[in-house]
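Run: sequence + iron/sulfur cluster -> complex structure.
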Amino acid sequence: MANEPLIEVKDLVVRFPVGSGLKRQYIVPVNHVSFTIAPGEVVALVGESGSGKTTIGRALVRILTPSSGSIHLGGADVTKIRGKALVAYRRQIQMVFQDPYGSLNPVKTVERHMRLPIRKHRQGREGAIGEQIDESLRTVGLTPVSEMRLKFPHELSGGQRQRVAIARALAVKPRVLVADEPISMLDVSIRAEILHLLKQLQQEYSLAYLYITHDLASARYFGDRIMVMYGGQIMEAAPADELVERPRHPYTRLLLAATPGAVHTGPLPETSNRSPNLAEGRVGCPFADRCPHVMAICRTENPPLLEQSAQHQVACHL
Ligand SMILES: Nc1ncnc2c1ncn2[C@@H]1O[C@H](COP(=O)(O)OP(=O)(O)OP(=O)(O)O)[C@@H](O)[C@H]1O
Ligand code: SF4
Ligand SMILES: [Mg+2]
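>> structure
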């Protein structure tokens, strides 16, 4: 069916232990999160530092196993798969990380970085692997390929390294890319180039993305839909223009109002220096301590994410 989601996340919970022995407690940075991504759709996940964005990304590519809830890809349950099934899953979903310096091995050439995933996922005969590497490098604009293949990470610029990371993720021909702040550590001058490349790839290969960012402007530019996250939960989700032009949740409004001009263009402003409570067993709306409209019910009941109008979901008691 045309509208069948490619990725379906239902009631996802991730909890981590903090402290040890008798002092052991748990934090829940992903607290009953549900969303879908359609084939070829770009879903931008926006939120302040510590809101749980990366943890969602890591759960999605199954670097970590969720505590509860489910993740389906193309209808198949991948929440707890391991071994060969997990390797096969990773051929369909890949992740690009924020730090292009940390994600490449300093003693390996570009070619070796590319060869490994292609081999692991048996994406072709040994003889064809070289051609496949060249094709991926050309796709991300790393030319001349004969030179680029032999380079070590320290011989590349930040932008070129991120291109290698993207090429490596693409080499296994995934259907979904989780891009976790892929431009935030790059020079301002090349951020637009890399974002443009990601958009081009999306159009050429009908790639679906979970695009994680602090920055509403890039979320609006790149995302078909935006989900705003706070304190481990999705506060608001809507088509990108709709969310920026008609924000409904007090937190989204605060984010948009905190910068001059109608459209937010910079990184997310710190609306407070108080970080959200992620402790297990917390009650009420995660945003209650900072919300100008807080009511009694907000302290005791967690507002569910409900559809307020077509495709526009809000989690708020107002
Ligand atoms: N493996 C872990 N063990 C314990 N706590 C963790 C672990 N990974 C993440 N956390 C905590 O979970 C919370 C959410 O982290 P996460 O990295 O998902 O946030 P984020 O929204 O990606 O933030 P940022 O914008 O800074 O990247 C943070 O408080 C973090 O310290
Ligand atoms: S539920 Fe209450 S505290 Fe939370 S955003 Fe809405 S009004 Fe504010
Ligand atoms: Mg993060």
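>> summary
Residues 97 and 165 are 8 Å apart (CA to CA). Residues 188-205 form the longest helix (18 residues).
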